[in-house]
Design a protein that fits this description.
Elements (H helix, E strand, L loop, with lengths): L1 H23 L10 H16 L14 H23 L10 H28 L5 E5 L5 H10 L4 E6 L14 E6 L3 H7 L4 E4 L7 H12 L4 E3 H9 L9 H6 L4 H4 L1 H37 L4 E7 L5 E7 L25 H6 L7 H7 L3 E3 L6 H10 L12 E3 L1 H5 L6 H17 L2 H17 L4
Parallel strand pairs: 1-2, 1-4, 2-3, 4-5, 8-9
Antiparallel strand pairs: 6-7
């Protein structure tokens, strides 16, 4: 933390002076060590701290470093602008002019972000020294599959009831058996662990719960499986949830917060109008391209399931031949032969979804939310995937947490993984999370990482 503070402090001093010299063509006699710069320093440190940029173990699991640092710098600029509005232009005059302020904040953002990425690379290299202790009372296959994928460099130590592995559980170089539940104190004394993960507390004896309480009081973090998934994997583990947990779990404000829903609706309309105006030339060009390459129709109308299981007509630019579903509804495929010329690029850069701005204006969709699914697929998915119907408690979205974190999927397994991200969004909805999704969506569009 002290290293990152020092980097930010030095960066602000150097960059504000550099920009003052470049813009004002003069060197500040006091090197900008004024109360104004001290106030800017304080604001920057405050917002960086609030966005958890002075630690790599962030509770903002859903927000990447890029998003958090951008939000912190934006809040700094907005706060200074409000002070200028309240106090008057003289507040920002002198050495810290508007041009110097704007250029410096952008450069400070890039400076701090660059150093944090370098520091994060070092932190990743140290992850081989990180150990997680998992108290197993069943066979959480999906958990270990997810863990090995996202924490491949870290070590997982297992404690089972009798010190033996379940019949179908396998260990590898990063996952090994450490003993029985009764060996908890001995294992922690021998191996410093980053935290203890309890796959389920329902079957754990009271004596072990008491030991876990003592361990937590003495500084070791204890996680329920669902909490670990949310904080470190940014999703909800649907195969390890119980109706009791869903009944009492915190969050899910997006479902019953009327004020929040109304605010979200206002933001949806504003974004749809602005995006529609900005993208109008692009939509005309896309429609012309489809017309010249494959004729009409230009739009593809498809029934999708919306909020509260209500059907609606979803609009997209047509990317497939008109007879693509002559044999019935089917998932799109990688390198789908039914695609029209340029159809793959329309999908890759999400241009085919621009007409859905009309669905947003009509109130059938939100700009951000779970992807609307087709009724033909939902019946089978609800039978195979637990809690699948919960994604229909909110309006579907053009983009969403599952879309930017997992991408396109055409199998039942993909649908299950995406549901975990969708439920995370429904449970943890916030303005910050929406901002993060917007930023990630822009990255998907610019770099063509869509399907």
């Amino acid at each position: 933390m002290l290293m990152l503070l020092a980097i930010d402090f030095v960066g602000i001093l150097i960059l504000f002076n550099l920009n003052h010299w470049l813009i004002a063509d003069a060197v500040a006699t006091d090197l900008l060590l004024t109360w104004k710069l001290a106030l800017i320093l304080g604001m920057t440190f405050l917002y960086f701290y609030l966005m958890d940029l002075y630690t790599f173990d962030s509770p903002f699991g859903q927000l990447g470093m890029l998003e958090r640092s951008f939000i912190a710098i934006a809040l700094t600029g907005i706060s200074i602008a409000l002070l200028v509005y309240l106090i008057g232009p003289g507040f920002i005059g002198g050495f810290v002019g508007r041009g110097v302020l704007a250029a410096s904040l952008i450069m400070v953002w890039l400076w701090s972000l660059g150093f944090r990425y370098v520091a994060n690379l070092w932190f990743v290299e140290q992850r081989s020294q990180i150990h997680w202790l998992v108290i197993v009372d069943d066979d959480p296959d999906q958990f270990f599959a997810d863990f090995r994928k996202d924490f491949s460099a870290e070590t997982v130590l297992l404690l089972t009831e009798d010190g033996s592995l379940p019949a179908n559980m396998e260990t590898n170089a990063s996952t090994r058996l450490a003993g029985a539940w009764s060996d908890l104190d001995q294992v922690i004394a021998q191996t410093p662990v980053s935290g203890v993960i309890v796959t389920s507390l329902e079957q754990v004896p009271d004596q072990l719960v008491s030991r876990l309480m003592d361990i937590r009081i003495h500084g070791t973090r204890i996680y329920r499986l669902s909490d670990f998934y949310e904080q470190y994997l940014s999703r909800v583990p649907i195969f390890h949830l119980s109706p009791q947990w869903l009944t009492t779990a915190h969050g899910f404000e997006l479902i019953h917060n009327r004020i929040g829903l109304r605010f979200k609706r206002y933001v949806d309309v504003l974004i749809a109008l602005l995006a529609g105006l900005i993208a109008l030339p692009l939509m005309v060009a896309t429609a012309t391209l489809i017309l010249l390459s494959s004729g009409t129709p230009l739009l593809y109308r498809q029934t999708r399931t919306g909020e509260n299981n209500q059907p609606f007509t979803c609009y997209k630019f047509r990317t497939m031949v008109a007879s693509a579903e002559a044999d019935g509804a089917q998932y799109a495929q990688v390198n789908d032969p039914r695609l029209i010329p340029f159809g793959r690029y329309l999908r890759k850069y999400r241009l085919d979804e621009l007409p859905q701005l009309w669905n947003v204006l009509k109130g059938e969709m939100s700009f951000i939310g779970p992807r609307p699914e087709r009724p033909e697929f939902i019946q089978n998915l609800e039978k195979a995937i637990p809690y699948y119907n919960l994604r229909h408690t909110v309006k579907p979205g053009i983009t969403g947490w599952a879309q930017v974190m997992y991408g396109y999927g055409d199998t039942e397994s993909d649908a299950a993984q995406k549901l975990q991200y969708d439920l995370f969004y429904v449970k943890n909805y916030s303005l910050l999370l929406d901002i993060s999704i917007l930023i990630k969506s822009i990255k998907v569009i610019l770099f063509g990482t869509g399907r």
